[in-house]
Amino acid sequence: MTVVDDTVAREFALTVSINGEQYATIVCTPTSLKELVIGFLASEGIIGNQADIQSLTIDDYKGFAYVELNFKIEVSERTERWIGSCCGKSREFYLKQDVKVAKTIMSKTKINPNQIVNLMQEFDNKANVFSQTGGVHQAGLATSANIETTFIDIGRHNALDKLFGYILLNKLPARDFCILFSGRISSEVVLKVSKIGAGILLAKSAPTDLALKLADDLQITAVGFIRNNSLNVYTHGYRILNNGIEKNTQVRGGDL
């Protein structure tokens, strides 16, 4: 028998306080917490951009993020909730907030299959924490040629919120980018991409039927099963260019 040390994913509870009142506790990976909090608040529809925040202080020892906004909100009317990291049941579906923040994407950004394959290979190469632990999701922001940044978290929604926060902090036009994702395309992921404002979602795994209905309605190009030299285009294939398809690349899709 061989005994070796194993690397495990870190799990951390971060309580977000808004204007002095506790709003939510997020179970997350304790990295890029500033991006996480800003992306979370934007996803919740509480802020529209970074300028709405007067101050943000993170006490990672106590596990608190203290947010002061430039306006008042009725936190007491919202139920404080515990947002866990468990996939599939990680968040409740808040229809009112989703309708408020989710938007139809009019992005004209396009990409070809060879670029998609290359981006996913680069994305995989950056997945060091996943390789070590097998316990995190990864989300990335990319142009058709290069990956801008990646974030990891034990919660898939948190990884995307960190990406959202990064976009807001750096005042990037989300419509000009693609989003790379390590997991399956769920309805939750599609809604998050819609809130971020990107038109192309590239994922390693399969979609769900509700996710594809939402992607179709929100005009998001959903591409899944990007593995080796194969990919499936599920919705709004007009953003996938017919050029750049190498002989050994398999592309499946009904509306290309």
UniProtKB/TrEMBL annotation:
Its main location: cytoplasm. Belongs to the FdhD family. It comes from Virgibacillus phasianinus. The active site is at C87 (cysteine persulfide intermediate). NCBIfam families: fdhD_narQ. Required for formate dehydrogenase (FDH) activity. Acts as a sulfur carrier protein that transfers sulfur from IscS to the molybdenum cofactor prior to its insertion into FDH. GO terms for molecular function: sulfur carrier activity; sulfurtransferase activity. It is found in: Cytoplasm. Coiled coil: none annotated. Transmembrane segments: none annotated. Keywords: Cytoplasm, Molybdenum cofactor biosynthesis. This is Sulfur carrier protein FdhD. The lineage of its organism: Bacteria, Bacillati, Bacillota, Bacilli, Bacillales. GO terms for cellular component: cytoplasm. GO terms for biological process: Mo-molybdopterin cofactor biosynthetic process.
